[in-house]
Design brief:
- The protein has 8 helices and 7 strands, in the order H-H-H-E-H-E-H-E-H-E-H-E-H-E-E.
- It is an alpha/beta fold and 213 residues long.
- The chain has one domain: Rossmann fold.
- Strand 2, helix 5 and strand 3 form a beta-alpha-beta unit.
- Helix 3 runs parallel beside helix 4.
- The longest helix has 15 residues.
- The chain is globular, with a radius of gyration of 16 Å.
- The relative contact order is 0.15.
- Bound molecules: S-adenosylmethionine (SAM).
- S-adenosylmethionine binds next to helix 4, strand 2 and helix 6.
Amino acid sequence: MRKILETDVQAYINSLLPARDALLGEMERYAERHDVPIVGPACARVLFQLARSIKARRVFELGSAIGYSTLWFARAVGPRGTVFYTDTDPANARRAEEYLRRAGVLRRVRILVGDALGMLKATPGQFDVIFNDVNKVQYPAVLRLAPARVRPGGIFVTDNVLWSGWVARAPARGDNDTRAIQEFNRKLYRSKELFTTVVPLRDGLAVSLKSAP
Ligand SMILES: C[S@@+](CC[C@H](N)C(=O)[O-])C[C@H]1O[C@@H](n2cnc3c(N)ncnc32)[C@H](O)[C@@H]1O
């Protein structure tokens, strides 16, 4: 991956991060060893901070893998909150379930296996936070679906919006991921109901505040 921030700047930010607990550390090492593309601690702190700052109780994740971002959200929402975990891969879901059980937060997480967009459609109600981290070609479809499900004053947040910097260039023929993210970013910034900022940490995190009524 081409780095968005200069390598030494990213390393400097990482050096400031307080050590995570043993379980998060174990998940980070597992992700590193098995190439699981988790948000990582610098961005996970943003997710936690956003959720806490709006007192989020209901969070829906689109694409949860081994449950790393899920665990940060589960801690942010507290014992009375609910985080919806989604992934197409049952092996990921089993691993996530085990980590979340060990973290003592499994009761506040609903584990849903299958297509995240379908799961979101099938889950009634509004959410304080929706976190989008599915396959990149699906980002335009997520944008058509998810913001309407965020409560006014809630947050829609999306990972990988800078896509190793590829979004700043004309996409190569057949590079449907870059094309989809570019379309997503354009429409996200143009949206009348969302107020968006891209935080250029790691691979780029788009934070969109849904207008209050
Ligand atoms: C980038 S990883 C998620 C990482 C996780 N959000 C974290 O930061 O800890 C993306 C995950 O989404 C899953 N995925 C991709 N497209 C999906 C879809 N349409 N529905 C459900 N899961 C999907 C993949 O199996 C993969 O595990």
